Known about the structure:
21% strand
Amino acid sequence: MGTERLDFIIKGDCVAEMAKMPDHSVDVIFADPPYHMQLGGELHRPDSSHVKSVDDEWDQFESSKAYDDFTVAWLTQAKRVLKKDGSFWVIGSYHNIFRVGKILQDMGFWIMNDILWIKNNPMPNFKGTRFTNAHETLLWCTTSKEARPTFNYHAMKTFNGDKQMRSDWYLPICSGNERCRNAAGESIHSTQKPEALLYRVLLSTSNKGDVVLDPFNGSGTTAVVAKKLGRRFIGIEREQEYIDLTYKRLAAVETIDDKVLSISQKKEMPKVPFGSLVANGMIKPGSTLFAQNGQVKAIVRADGSLITDKGEEGSIHKVGATVQNKASCNGWTFWSINQNGKDTSIDTLRHDSVKIA
Length: 357
Ligand SMILES: C[S@@+](CC[C@H](N)C(=O)[O-])C[C@H]1O[C@@H](n2cnc3c(N)ncnc32)[C@H](O)[C@@H]1O
């Protein structure tokens, strides 16, 4: 068994190079394989200028069967080197994602989500013969239905302005200063992905120090974002030109400071029913709970339920919601109690009750 060298781009064919890697040795794989676009002929804009499309040698396969055989070969190695609870990501367009998706499901991979990367600034359909192709699809998979991958749900919710992150990601294609160009101003890699895309992928399904493998490294976007986020990386790429470009990009990357890197995790709340605070004497039956600067009050009953002077009754959560005319309420953070002249949130008492126990 060969390489475990980290933060390194291996030159070679990804099937052969992954075959040298140990079983279950990486936490995340992000794969951006050839698209198998089968383009024919030159494409021009209405002003006759040439459109740079994906006609690279690495995207040529003699048949769809050859593409499928290659897909089986690299997916087999990817599944072997990925940890059982690791995350597998693959991105593609309509040209290849359905073939890849079928093959990986047949191999036992389990799809967690298909994410649509919706391009804010897609390339127009110059011929005007089809809809503008404005998205690519990412499949987020595990090695099996039983696997339990990292999913930083709360970090992604915070990232998304406290709203659950959805499966439609609106991001521009890689352009401007981010796009790597040669001296003539041409793109060096035809399919350089935007860092913002990889940022979401790695932030959501990996942790600091995790090892991320990209078997189709290209210009190195995965490696660049992995370094930025304090993850370790291994890239595999056949073309030296792209490996050189990757190291050039990596040299300009600074890893985000440790303190800033830590992401929001939901605090583990003690599982304490409100009634147990009544039962253990921390809150006496007949006590008054209050909220909203004392404008709302309720009496604690012996069974841990509340009742207001208007007769609204139920759990701390139900009465909290009712008095606010809301569908739900976290009663623990809504209600407080005055004990010995001091106002205390019942959430504090909940934590204290665990310490006492
Ligand atoms: C779609 S591009 C990846 C682009 C990359 N995600 C980026 O952001 O730059 C696919 C890359 O895989 C490389 N490639 C194709 N077949 C390969 C193989 N069998 N082994 C290793 N690399 C391969 C190509 O040279 C190309 O750079």
